Amino acid sequence: MPDLDALLLARIQFAFTVSFHFIFPAFSIGLASYLMVLEGLWLKTGEQRYLDLFRFWLKIFAVAFAMGVVSGIVMSYQFGTNWAVFSDKAGPVIGPLMAYEVLTAFFLEAGFLGVMLFGMKKVGKGLHFAATCMVAVGTFISAFWILSVNSWMQTPAGFVMGANGQFLPGESWWDIVFNPSFPYRLLHTVTAAYLTTAFVVGGVGAWHLLKDRTQRHARTMFSMAMWMAAVVAPVQIVLGDLHGLNTLEHQPAKVMAMEGHFESHPDGAPLILFGIPDSEAGEVKYSIEIPKASSLILKHDLNAPLAGLDTVPPEDRPPVGIVFWSFRVMVGIGMLMLAIGLWSLFARWRGRLYEWRWLHRAALVMAPSGFVAVIAGWITTEVGRQPWTVYGLLRTSDSASPLDAPAVASSLAAFVVVYFAVFGAGVWYILKLMADGVQTGESGPATGVAGPIRAAGITPASQAASDGEPREQGEVER
To answer: Which regions span the lipid bilayer (predicted)?
Structure first.
């Protein structure tokens, strides 16, 4: 395999680890907010089903959060090992932003996570709900800073170039943080996380409805998830369109690859639905097209001209095949999500939301669709940025550490083995919890005797004896 040089292996390793890592934040961002809603509904209504659902999803959140933290820590080391030149040149800008993420978000999440997981019977209801809210806010703040870093790499702004070639902060950090693509990417990504969680919750609810359509917890989960799908899926499509228009303005070559436009179209570009991109021939073979529809979507004008990759130097073009198909996977899943949401609205209107088995089967099949969509979206974003790490300013080939291919290959092999073993077990446990379902009225420690259950010098038996109850023969006090 002579083509697998150190640079390509380093790219594969980062792609593998970041794809594996993002699965868990994409789930925990939405799930933290869902837990906040469940606990809020329980406090407002006093209904036991909301508390049962909160406790059920809290266990799953704990496992997903832990796996996200571990995979994220491992991923960050690659900036120093495989991408040392990038870290040196871009560190003055991205380093503080990533530090802000730790200081404002990770510490917030970690600080209140313990109260959220173990403090329901140790603190008041209001304080526990506040802790749940802080964890949800922390996940959003974490996404805020990480997406600001990534967006700056896509649309760099607010910097000056140092004499040594480093990117240095300019007069205002706000120009760096709120770079041109950041608001669009933040909204699009966080909304995708909410949809991802909604379809997981809906899939679990559908699974248990297929086994017993009268199960109250399953009905609640499924109804809440379908409301989210029906409301948020259309919003996500609009946000995706706005994000695409912003990308066309700042990264036109990426949009050209997404659309498969090898040639410029001066009088309206077609929308290529499917085909096989051939970069060497400069065409999409066997294409199925809608005339002028791409100009209508991107320029809101059927006859608007659109430039093609023939206007971009060959060395600056992204890999068209990967970007072309990953974009279609993302958009296709988004349309399926919209279809499920509309189907659920029709079923709700007909009073058959919990009766239509085919809707439940479809929701079950779509349960992992959000993960596939967000990974496809990130592949579109990151591969479409190539051949740059800092778009238009720092090439990927100039960002890597001076390592030999065997060194990178061995660490990549270790990552693959460890990730699939450790995180495979974690995913299996999450799926087992989901399949087991919600336990009604889970209780805490037994409180059958007065006073503390465990304390220095006191056991339940000795406590009972002090209250006048006989001890069992042979019992020994501590």
So the answer is: 12-35, 56-77, 97-119, 126-147, 186-210, 222-239, 322-346, 358-379, 407-431
pLDDT at residue 467 in the model: 46
448 vs 128, residue with greater confidence: 128
Neighbours of 114 (CB within 10 A): 10
From CA 18, how far away is CA 72, in angstroms rounded?
A: 8
More confident residue, 454 or 59: 59
Q: Distance (Å, rounded) from C-alpha 111 to C-alpha 302?
A: 54
Residue 13 near residue 415 (C-beta atoms within 8 A):
yes
Query: pLDDT band at 474, cuts 50/70/90?
Result: very low
For the chain, give the longest Cα–Cα distance: 97
- What is the pLDDT at residue 121? 82
Orientation angle between helical segments 357-365 and 182-211, nearest 10 degrees: 130
SS3 per-residue string spanning the chain: CCCCCHHHHHHHHHHHHHHHHHHHHHHHHHHHHHHHHHHHHHHHHCCHHHHHHHHHHHHHHHHHHHHHHHHHHHHHCHHHHCCHHHHHHHHHHHHHHHHHHHHHHHHHHHHHHHHHHHCCCCCCHHHHHHHHHHHHHHHHHHHHHHHHHHHHHHCCCCEEECCCCCEEECCCHHHHHCCCCHHHHHHHHHHHHHHHHHHHHHHHHHHHHHHCCCCHHHHHHHHHHHHHHHHHHHHHHHHHHHHHHHHHHHCHHHHHHHHCCCCCECCCCCEEEEEEEECCCCEEEEEEEECCHHHHHHHCCCCCCECCHHHCCHHHCCCHHHHHHHHHHHHHHHHHHHHHHHHHHHHHHCCCCCCCHHHHHHHHHCCCHHHHHHHHHHHHHHHHHCCEEECCCEEHHHCCCCCCHHHHHHHHHHHHHHHHHHHHHHHHHHHHHHHHCCCCCCCCCCCCCCCCCCECCECHHHHHHHCCCCCCCCCCCC
Task: For 195-215, write each residue's pLDDT tens digit.
Answer: 999 999 999 999 999 998 888
This prediction has a pTM of 0.86
Q: 112-121, 139-148, 278-287 — which one is most confidently predicted on average?
A: 139-148
- Looking at residue 361, its pLDDT comes to 94
Tell me the per-residue pLDDT of 239-276, one tens digit each, with 9 for 90 and over: 999 999 999 999 999 999 999 999 988 888 899 898 89
Beta-bridge partners for 290:
271
Cβ–Cβ < 8 Å for 302, 295: yes
The pLDDT tens digits for 66-101 are 888 877 777 778 888 888 899 899 989 998 998 888
Contacts 24+ apart (CB under 8 A), 122-128: 125/43, 126/43, 128/39
Query: What pLDDT does residue 453 have?
Result: 45
